[in-house]
Amino acid sequence: MRSPGKQSRPPLTDYRAAFGQDLRAIRERVGVSQEALAHAIGMSRRYLSGIERGEANPTLDQIVRLADGLGVEPGELLPARANPSAP
Fold first, then answer.
1. In degrees to the nearest 10, what's the CA dihedral of 29, 34, 38, 41?
2. How many CB atoms lie within 10 A of CB 16?
3. Which of 7, 60, 67, 85 could form a disulfide with 74 if both were Cys (CB 3.0 to 4.6 A apart)?
């Protein structure tokens, strides 16, 4: 049972899906294919595809590698929280 006044967080799968959508949008914006990005950062294209579909849950190290490969800050890949004041 939740405490009154506290809002629940979206399911983690929602964050994975949002992360994947943001990752794909940035990758397409910079004009790099999944295959080229995966090769550049030493990740399988299949795993990268799973991340973009919200099926795979990348580690922090992988998020940093993805950001470096795209030439962006890691925070740019993270979805905005629905409730920024939530812990």
1. -10
2. 19
3. 67
